[in-house]
Amino acid sequence: MTRKPNASQKISTPAKTQRGIKRKGRDDTTAQSSSDANGNAKKLKTSSGRPTSRVDQAPHGSQTQLQVQPPGPQTRKAKDVPKYIPDTAFYYEDGDVFATIGLNLFCVHIKTLLSAGGIFTVLLNSPLVRPSEEEIIFGLPCIPVYNISVREFRFLLAHLYRTAPVDRHLRNGTRWLFWESAVTLLKVAKVLDLEIIHQDVIKALKTLLPNTAERKSFRPTIAGLRNKNEEKMFSRTYPMQAIKLIHEYDLPAMLPMAYYHAAQLSIEDILTGVKDGDVLWKLDSDDVLRVIEGRENLKLARREDLFSWMPRRVAQGLIHSSCISEVGKSGRPCQSFLNELSNLYNQTGYLDLYPTALESFTPEEKHEYRDYLCGRCWREIQEMYAVCLQATWAKLPSYFGLQDWDAVTAAQDHANKAWDGRY
After folding, report:
1. How far apart, in Å, do the first and last CA atoms of the chain sit?
2. What is the pLDDT of residue 53?
3. Which run of H or of E encompasses 345?
4. Is residue 149 within 8 Å of 155, Cβ to Cβ?
5. pLDDT digit string (tens) for 18-57?
6. If you placed Cys at 361, which of 47, 365, 369, 376 could pair as Cys (CB 3.0 to 4.6 Å)?
7. Structure confidence at residue 223 as a pLDDT band (50, 70, 90)
8. How far is CA 10 from each of CA 66, 78, 81, rounded to the nearest angstrom?
9. Predicted confidence (pLDDT) per residue in 138-187, tens digit
10. Nearest by Cα to 298 from 265, 337, 344
11. Considering only CA atoms, which of 118, 100, 117, 98 is closest in space to residue 108?
12. Which distant-in-sequence residues (6+ apart) come within 8 Å of 33 by Cβ?
């Protein structure tokens, strides 16, 4: 259960909070003085005479602040006591550790933090590390988290607690990718040395930027897009964001697909970038050259690789018995339909104008093929198309002037060794 402190919440003494209850059980509070006229909360003393904490009551309508004094000399001045603000999203009543970023106070669980590994393992699971007097709040250990923002830490906790994981499987069989979380957690994993989180993000990003042909789809549902305008803007900006992330976090195995997505953009977007609010997403000069070159190669690949089955199939002139017994909407054998379709593709430039060399049949195309072909011919064409799609995938890195998939994967394996010291 998560407690979300609100503006009207009255905090009189720590003994009335979950943390205070634990403290009371240990220290046997014996005396307390009245609040002063300025609204300061009562001062607690233990049987040893040592102050346990101080809590300032926030003015009505403002965010609650906890003024916490860790165990220390009674002579410590009030102005030196830090004022913490309980986090509104991650402050658990049954938490067993505090984490602070500046004055923001998170009450979470040691087990959950340890599941992220990295720096949390060092801070919370090392026999050589023990919290000092200044690192105790309400009797619980308190760890400061440095070099990331409150927002970034919330993304990490949301992933660890699975309230908003970086990805998940949906009931309809598709994948759900939280792009903003993935981008944020790449940084957090690097700063806090969280290899487990890094691998979680890599696994999630592979739904959009696969490096193996086993992926049946690279179109996951993107979480957080609220309307069609945001979806359209995301489709224009994420390839550029992805390429930037790949260079920054050394993810070479994802670069071919990132280039592929960028090649689907308009020439204007590729050359001049895309402005999203106050942010201009733009490729650097080397990436622009590779994407432009790859874009033209992908157009050629549609005819020479992806649809190379069509002229072969038309030239064979195959007519099965089912072509006669299962006549489609045209009322003619399957071969006549394929001849007409091949001519139409050539006349309209369908095979030469688009860089979509990794796309399967669209639902509309599948519907048309099924309506005009017998079952046997349709199955044969799907099998030939799958073989051609696999051949196109194998050549994908070369379209952008990169080494083959084996070399790209080896480069990724080398980069991954940095996480476990095998560099």
Report:
1. 43
2. 35
3. helix 334-348
4. no
5. 444 333 333 333 333 333 333 333 333 333 333 333 333 3
6. 365
7. confident
8. 11, 20, 20
9. 778 888 999 999 999 999 999 999 999 999 887 777 788 999 999 999 99
10. 265
11. 98
12. 42, 43
Quick check: 127 and 138 in contact, CB under 8 A? no
Q: Model's pTM, two decimal places?
A: 0.77
Q: Which residues pair with 276 in a beta bridge?
A: 279
Place of tokens 């003494």: 13
Residues 205, 183: Cα–Cα separation, whole Å? 9
Q: Mark out the alpha helices in 251-333 (DSSP H runs).
A: 255-263, 267-272, 285-301, 309-316, 321-325
Give 140's contacts (C-beta < 8 A, 6+ positions apart). 19, 22, 95, 96, 97, 98
Burial of 337 (0-12, 13-18, 19+ CB in 10 A): buried
Please give the Cα distance from 342 to 348 (Å, whole number). 10
Which tokens in the block code for residue 46? 């233990």
The pairing of beta strand 274-276 with beta strand 279-281: antiparallel
Mean pLDDT of the chain: 79
Residue 105 · residue 80 · CB < 8 Å: no
299-320, pLDDT tens digit by residue? 999 999 999 999 998 888 877 7
Which residue bears the tokens 């799609």? 389
| Rounded-to-integer distance, Cα 211 and Cα 421, Å | 24
Instruction: Give the length of the chain.
Output: 423
